[in-house]
Amino acid sequence: MKRAYANIFWLVIVMFVAGGCTTVGSDALPSINAQPSSTHQTGSFVWFDLLSEDVDAARAFYSDLFGWRIQPSDDDGTYLMIHNGSRAIGGIVAHENRAPQAVESLWIGSLSVEDVDRAAAAVRNHGGTVLEGPLNAMPRGRMALVADPAGAVLALLRSDAGDPADEPPGEGDWLWTDLILDDAGPVKDFYHQVAGFTLRAVEDREQHSYSVFMAGRQPRAGMVVLDWEGIEANWLPYV
Description:
- By secondary structure, the protein is of the alpha/beta class.
- Helix content is 16%, strand content 42%.
- The protein has a nine-stranded mixed β-sheet, with helices on both faces. The chain has a five-stranded mixed β-sheet with strand order 11-12-13-10-14.
- Strand 4 (79-84) and strand 5 form a beta hairpin.
- It starts with 5 loop residues before the first helix and ends with a strand.
């Protein structure tokens, strides 16, 4: 990986793992679905967590910008739940004084997969890195934190309560997610092996290309190949 994510990984491990166990306590990662079901939106990014170097500032910023209601989900306030209207759509990890030094903020999307263990094995077998897991993060579900061959970080998730309904997004909802990178070569086959995606080219220019990750006939995310100075590979969510 081109980017030094060590501090961010340290924080995520704190978030995902309690005492080295393979099951995280029920107060660590809340369920992503307030109305439990057996329905999963496989191939979709169904949740986003923000790792923030300044939780108070992030909370104020997103509340003012989008009108999100952001409140602690536990007594010690280490995990803040983001609501858009009445619907929970994400979280913010409160990690003050947990990191050995300051870190930059990062949104991590959770990709719904059929089998987290099988997808994690595919990550290892096709040039990616399994950073943590697979593990049971109750009551959220089975999870693994991974990085693709370009270094972009995401979580693989099989939610115990099913996934939120796949509804048309409204104002303040997650609209789309793009993989931003400067070379598509390392990841062209990776996401097919891990998530079953096929790539459909939309635009191809000398300095820029855009493709869509398809789950069957359903477009689920995009891939932007663009050499932006100072921008490393990342999954970018849109609101």
